[in-house]
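#struct-help
A.M.: can someone run this one for me? Single chain, 355 residues.
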Amino acid sequence: MVPFSGDIPGRTILFGVVPGELPHISGKEYAFRANSLLLHAVEQFRPELDGFLGRYAPERVAVVLGASNTGIDEAQRHVDDWLSCGTMPASMSFSEIELGTSAEYLRNLLGLSGPAHVVSTACSSSAKAFASARRLMEAGVVDAAVVGGVDGRCRFAMNGFHALGALAQGACRPLAHDRDGINLGEGVALFTMEAEDRAPPKAGTRVFLAGVGESSDAYHATAPDPEGRGAEAAMRSAMAEAGLTPRDVSYVNLHGTGTQANDAMEMRALARIFADSEELSDLEELKLRLAERGLRVESTKPMTGHCLGAAGAVEAAIAWLYLTSGTVKGAALSNSFAFGGSNACVALVSKETVP
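D.P.: on it. Structure tokens below:
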């Protein structure tokens, strides 16, 4: 989390930035930050990724990403140049504003020829990407998928949240009584998805996608249903699909933006599912009640910022790391709740396997 000034006139904000220099992409069609983030991620696990891809024909692997900004920031800078000089820069490409470009880029980068598309449902985009990829596999369209989310820094998005009055004055404080808004961030997370019987034997802790729950509030364009009924429906659906009871869940990565409305509705939903209470609205009392029954709940957005279209995949990756390392045992939920009431919950389960 670093301070940024200049993107929002007259204001400095904290922003979660991917540090260091990102790899360069040549050719204007794909040369924007979100794709550099994808390349950066691919480079980190290329040997494992190559082994995974080697088990399938190129046309039998899908690429499904969640995103909301793609190359909007680069396009905006080109428009600024156009307005100042009167001609469109030669480096401008309309692929910057096409939502599917990042999935197309990743498919080409990996040498694949199967389906490639982007899910764009604001903050639940890359959580819903898991469900979309799994449906392709269940329908027999593909045998495996590369799934995840990506969003780079974007002035347009920053100013949009500023206009809504949703940005925190300093660091975001999810679940705090005096919470005052969100911090934004950029990020990328990628997963490989394949059927358990197709994966090579491996001893130790393995993490499985056990369920994805989706729901729609349709309550308001930007505000969530104050009672959290859509959030509750998504979580219950994910658990039902995974065959889990509330007692089976050890960890919930909250959507936890730090706004008054989001955190209140999300904790009301958790109270009904995990504390059997319709009335428990005091956050501190609820946190104690959940801790007593062994459920760890937290928002990791103070560490990463809200990564928008990438948030669902980034936070599912954090849950995956907790399960893989043994920090969390059993099952974990990762919540993503978006504008317009587009909700998703990803259920992950860990198992001890032998070769």
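A.M.: thanks! The longest strand covers residues 204-216.
D.P.: also worth noting: The radius of gyration is 20 Å.
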